[in-house]
Amino acid sequence: MTAFPSSGFLSEASDELREMLSDLASELTLEQGETLFEQGDEGDALYAILSGTLEVSFLAMSGRKLTLTLMRPGEVFGEIALFDSGPRTATVTAAEPSRVLRVRRRDAMGQIRQHPDLAVDMVRLAGLRMRWMDSQLNEQVFLPMPIRLARKLLHLSNLQDDPTARITLSQSELAEFVGATREAVSKTISTWKRDNVVEASRGGLLIQDFEALRELAESDLI
């Protein structure tokens, strides 16, 4: 039996709940480029990464795949599927050979029916997850768009093998990332371009002054 990581969604789980998940877990091996699940698939399992790196992506309105983040060993994801079998909101693919643990929803629910005390722990964890999602939503809604854009550009640069390389996204795709109009994103980038914070062209965007962009990302108001 491989123990489930005590991180992420499970960082405040009881020993009993983690032991239950570990007992139910099966190990999967993914080759580089292999898809674990796709955007729109029915959610049916919780996962934890044992080794390797997984890419989280979604399809933009243009039809192009956009990478949201990279997940590494110790990360737990897909937990919403334990409570709801709705469609996956993103695609998860192995960026390199990887090993993951999987616990299927039906198996977890079967154990909880037999041991109702575990349900209390699950409900508490669901509440913590909802609080985290609320904080993410508040950031998306209430933070000024330039701060959201600065944070997203820094995050995207960190996902690249070379953080100083050009970010090959259109301004329309960046607007999708930060929940803004293309016009608003274009106006902000024009200001940053004038101040030599970024260099922008049809081929994408290059961060010229990381320190200035970090200061923008960490400020309360712009």
The helix/strand series, from N terminus to C terminus, equals: HEEEEEEEEHHHHHEEH
Mean pLDDT: 88
| Termini Cα gap | 51 Å
Total of helices:
7
Helix content: 40-55%
Q: Going across the major beta sheet, what is the strand order?
A: 1-8-3-6
Poorly predicted spans:
none
Main sheet: strands, sense, barrel: 4 strands, antiparallel
Structural class: alpha+beta
Radius of gyration computed on alpha carbons: 20 Å
- Tally of strands: 10
Shape: elongated
In terms of DSSP E residues, the strand content is 15-25%
List the helices and strands and how they pair.
Blueprint: H1 15-24, E1 26-30, E2 35-37, E3 45-51, E4 54-59, E5 65-71, E6 76-77, E7 91-94, E8 98-104, H2 105-114, H3 117-142, H4 145-159, H5 171-178, H6 182-194, E9 198-201, E10 204-207, H7 210-218
Antiparallel strand pairs: 1-8, 2-7, 3-6, 3-8, 4-5, 4-7, 9-10
Would you give an account of this structure?
The protein has 222 residues and is an alpha+beta fold. It has helices at 15-24, 105-114, 117-142, 145-159, 171-178, 182-194, 210-218; strands spanning 26-30, 35-37, 45-51, 54-59, 65-71, 76-77, 91-94, 98-104, 198-201, 204-207. The strands form three sheets. It has a four-stranded antiparallel beta sheet. Strands 2-7-4-5 form a four-stranded antiparallel beta sheet. The radius of gyration is 20 Å and the shape is elongated.
Characteristics:
222 residues; alpha+beta; 4-stranded antiparallel sheet; 7 helices; 22% strand; elongated
